[in-house]
Amino acid sequence: MISHIRGKLVEKYTTHVVIECNGLGYHLPISLQTFTAIADQENIKLYTYLSIREDAHILYGFWDKTEREIFKLLISVSGVGPSTAITMLSSMNTTDIQNAIGNEDVEKIKSVKGIGAKTAQRVIVDLKDKILKSFDITEEIPSSNNTIKNEALSALEVLGFARKRVDKIIQVIIQESPDITLEDLIKKALKNL
Predict the structure, then answer these.
(1) CATH number of the domain to which 153 belongs
(2) 138, pLDDT greater than 70
(3) Which of 46, 123, 158, 170 could pair with 61 in a Cys bridge, judged by C-beta atoms 3.0 to 4.6 Å apart?
């Protein structure tokens, strides 16, 4: 794989750049994030990803490694191709994408042109664990639920259940029912253990 390209910026458009390197002009599709970051530099370095299809070899350019990693994760999801991934990176910055996936924000992902409800859900299901591990995103829990969550965790630990396993189950229940009572939370968690 071609990891990066460094050279003279010959052309710059909102959708792509042309970088001259050793006499060759490389056409690289880019996101709006990268377009903004480039500013008007004469010599630039972009991280790259080579997409090989039956009918074309396309070299995509990214301002930083994080953007490239998010792109690679997005295209690993069935139904999300490179064009959709670039559109998503143009619509939201990498932090917003990580947070939307980590916090299961279907509406935010769905707001990207070309992504429907099913694809947004698939992105979350396929990438949530990878995003949480790779980018150290903390899932948002409404602060009023922190007390209930901690009390439920303590109660279930006293009953002999492993904290890590219980924590995941409680997290899901609270996200599905933010206004749940402590008693109902414990009952639901016990049913899922």
Answers:
(1) 1.10.8.10
(2) no
(3) 46
